[in-house]
């Protein structure tokens, strides 16, 4: 099975028009500051055109209207958010610059520490102790003037791709509330796509930022490992985890990353922006690699069509499409599951010991302990990982970015993902690791990757995501290319 129809790469090939939002959707353009890009909000607040308080109230109004159905949030701290917004407004009134994210409203996944709140990780097995301090990422965003609204729904301990395993119940896709938003950062994606917040933080170990971004029709960035501090974030598999933003557009992701990047408290923003090389979007002359082996995976016709159309637009804008072969990609998913099972076992052990963890968490813990006992399967998986990393590094010596679908399917029905038996009754392949077949490649190789909207499937009208994967440290190019591709739509 090929990634694109035979004529999809020819210059000038007409792409079918993307479908418009469904009648029952709550996404799409919004009036007022809840629908503005983050940069416009921050500029308007800093210049006194609008207040941070009015921006927050616009988001609160949408949240009150839509979240009873969508269930993006597991916790809202409205009064604390209002206090933050007043602080921003007071700074503006005193002539003090509140920062590059002044008044921009955001949310965080339920595995990210917020001072004074319990980091539950979507589980009933949480320790019940409030966090002493904000995670570094949260502290940076607050210091830049952003206003934190609440914590979002996630799969229990980040084990899942639908939010069905969340102890508080699943989030619902704003394009069709009967469907999954993806996971494990599904609530964050829902909050952004529905305009409840301007951006949100998620975590990505094998696709948990990019997959929900694809299913909800937004942008999701898994940065280069180490670029964004994970201090104060509950880990899943060290060496694979990243903290990244989910946003409605690539420009907002660029702005948020410019605040999040780096670790030193005395690091100046201009230095970060210079180091990231944030610049103007451009496609002309860009070499985009299409991995042949990944095109053999069972992608739906609607996904293939939309990614092919995106590639055609990129070529029309001057990019060069280059076939790339990485045979090790066929083995990436199986190896990922083995290696991460071993890494996650000691992390979840205290949660399992409470007797309140979900059955899927207990099973993953048991499997990881078994594999860790000198298993040849583990050694084989580690070898695959090393070979995959080397193969991708070689491929990226010849091209600037790799392009693929983010997921092989669009969002599945929630009713197909869960039964009264709970996690043990989940049988739909969309919840199985199959959906990770594209995304785990970047995590296995330690490379940055980004999902961007590629239109809507002709089969069901739901969003399709395309994924860009870059060289280690090449986050700025990913973001610039995503901005440029958005301009061709």
Structure, described:
GO terms for molecular function: catalytic activity. Belongs to the amidase family. With 489 residues, the chain is of the alpha/beta class. The chain has one domain (34-323, 384-488): Amidase signature (AS) domain (Amidase signature (AS) enzymes, Alpha-Beta Complex), CATH 3.90.1300.10. Helix content is 37%, strand content 12%. The chain is built from 14 helices and 11 strands. It has an 11-stranded mixed sheet with strand order 1-3-2-4-6-5-10-11-9-7-8, with helices on both faces. Helix 10 packs across helix 12 (376-398). The protein is globular and about 60 Å long. Residues 1-21, 264-275 and 419-432 have low confidence and may be disordered.
Q: Proportion of β residues? A: 5-15%
CATH class: Alpha Beta
- Rounded to the nearest angstrom, the distance between the terminal CA atoms is 26 Å
Quick one: overall form?
A: globular
The tally of structural domains comes to 1
Number of helical elements: 14
Largest sheet, strands/sense/barrel? 11 strands, mixed
Architecture (CATH level 2) name: Alpha-Beta Complex
Which parts are unreliable, with pLDDT below 50 for 5 consecutive residues or more? 1-21, 264-275, 419-432
Structural class: alpha/beta
* Total DSSP E strands: 11
**Fourth-level CATH superfamily:** Amidase signature (AS) domain
| Average residue pLDDT | 88
Region (Disordered): 1-35, 168-187
Domain Amidase: 55-479
GO molecular function: catalytic activity
Protein name: Amidase
């Amino acid at each position: 099975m090929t990634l694109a129809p035979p004529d999809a790469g020819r210059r000038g090939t007409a792409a079918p028009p993307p479908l418009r939002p469904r009648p029952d959707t709550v996404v799409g353009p919004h009036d007022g500051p809840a629908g503005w890009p983050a940069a416009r909000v921050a500029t308007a607040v800093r210049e006194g055109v609008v207040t941070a308080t009015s921006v927050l109230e616009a988001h609160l109004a949408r949240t009150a209207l839509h979240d009873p159905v969508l269930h993006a949030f597991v916790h809202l701290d409205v009064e604390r958010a209002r206090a933050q917004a007043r602080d921003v407004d007071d700074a503006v009134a005193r002539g003090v610059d509140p920062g590059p994210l002044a008044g921009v409203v955001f949310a965080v996944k339920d595995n990210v520490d917020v001072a004074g709140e319990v980091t539950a990780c979507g589980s009933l097995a949480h320790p019940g102790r409030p966090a002493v301090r904000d995670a570094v990422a949260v502290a940076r965003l607050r210091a830049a003037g952003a206003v934190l609204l609440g914590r979002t729904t996630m799969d229990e301990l980040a084990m899942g791709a639908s939010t069905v395993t969340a102890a508080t119940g699943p989030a619902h896709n704003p394009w069709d509330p009967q469907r999954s938003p993806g996971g494990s950062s599904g609530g964050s994606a829902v909050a952004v796509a529905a305009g409840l917040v301007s951006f949100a933080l998620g975590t990505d170990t094998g696709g948990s930022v990019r997959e929900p971004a694809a299913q909800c029709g937004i942008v999701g960035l898994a940065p280069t490992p180490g670029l964004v501090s994970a201090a104060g974030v509950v880990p899943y598999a060290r060496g694979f985890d990243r903290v990244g933003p989910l946003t409605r557009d690539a420009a907002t992701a660029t702005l948020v990353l410019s605040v999040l990047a780096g670790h030193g408290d005395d690091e100046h923003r201009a230095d970060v922006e210079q180091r990231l090389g944030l610049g103007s979007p451009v496609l002309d002359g860009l070499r985009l690699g299409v991995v042949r082996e990944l095109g053999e995976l069972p992608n739906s016709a609607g996904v293939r069509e939309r990614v092919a159309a995106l590639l055609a637009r990129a070529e029309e804008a001057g990019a060069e499409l280059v076939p790339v072969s990485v045979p090790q990609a066929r083995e990436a998913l199986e190896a990922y599951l083995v290696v991460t099972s071993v890494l996650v076992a000691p992390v979840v052990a205290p949660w399992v010991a409470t007797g309140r963890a979900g059955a899927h968490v207990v099973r993953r813990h048991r499997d990881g302990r078994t594999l860790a006992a000198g298993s040849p399967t583990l050694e084989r998986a580690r070898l695959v990982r090393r070979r995959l990393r080397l193969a991708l590094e070689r491929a990226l010596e010849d091209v600037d970015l790799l392009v693929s679908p983010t997921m092989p399917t669009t969002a599945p029905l929630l009713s197909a993902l869960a039964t009264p038996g709970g996690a043990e009754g989940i049988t739909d392949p969309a919840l199985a690791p199959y959906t990770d077949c594209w995304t785990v490649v970047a995590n296995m190789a330690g490379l940055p990757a980004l999902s961007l909207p590629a239109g809507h499937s002709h089969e069901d009208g739901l969003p399709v995501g395309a994924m860009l994967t870059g060289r280690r440290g090449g986050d700025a190019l990913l973001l610039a290319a995503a901005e440029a591709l958005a301009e061709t739509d």
